[in-house]
Amino acid sequence: MTLSVGQLAPDFMLESHLDKQVRLSDYRGCVNVVLVFFPQAWTSV
Amino acid sequence: MQAQVLGLSVDSIPSLKAWSESLGGIGYPLLGDFYPHGQVARMYGVLRPEGRCERAIFIIDKLGVIRYIDVHDIDQQPDNEVLFGELAKIAGVSPAQPAMPASDEPDADLVMYCTPWCSDCRKAREYLSLRKIPYVEVDITRDPAAAQRMRGWTGGKQITPTFNIRGKIVIDFDKARLAEALGIKE
Hints:
The complex is a heterodimer of chains A (45) and B (186). By secondary structure, chain A is mainly β.
């Protein structure tokens, strides 16, 4: 599946390293979200 | 413009925590798309066949609509520090980028090695200002040579603040030891 600009972002809920569950839709109506996927921790070390 | 940055990888939470610590603490949430493995990455079409995700940035507006998509090839930008620099810029914190030329130890009676986000560094600044003790501050996130010097004193760890008082090293904001090294009364 490929997403494109203008589509609704698929919602998800995941655990974060700050010990909080984060649900994308919780930000709706509040702030813009910059969602950054990165391949793997430690890869630059 | 206010924005919430969310980092996302297929790493486990313990791995992300350890990684964040190694970088001096990442203030925005790093999400572990770990189990079921890569589920969210797959939903966004950025999961690679070998199970990692592409480097990709999605900007989602307040209505939940995707406004910007940038997908890099995994090999195109092999340095996570670059990504973090960009992220940091967006998030409005000082980027951990080696932008400054290598520095020598400042010629000062008290040099404090710190990071912009460390709370003990903030307390140390207040402590020193209150006692009118002059000091020179070195931001190790902008000065890799200084970070290297600090790690030489701390046994390789990133501990801030670390003080150099004309060769006497005080690791962490330890008021008693700092006062002793400065020759002042606590």
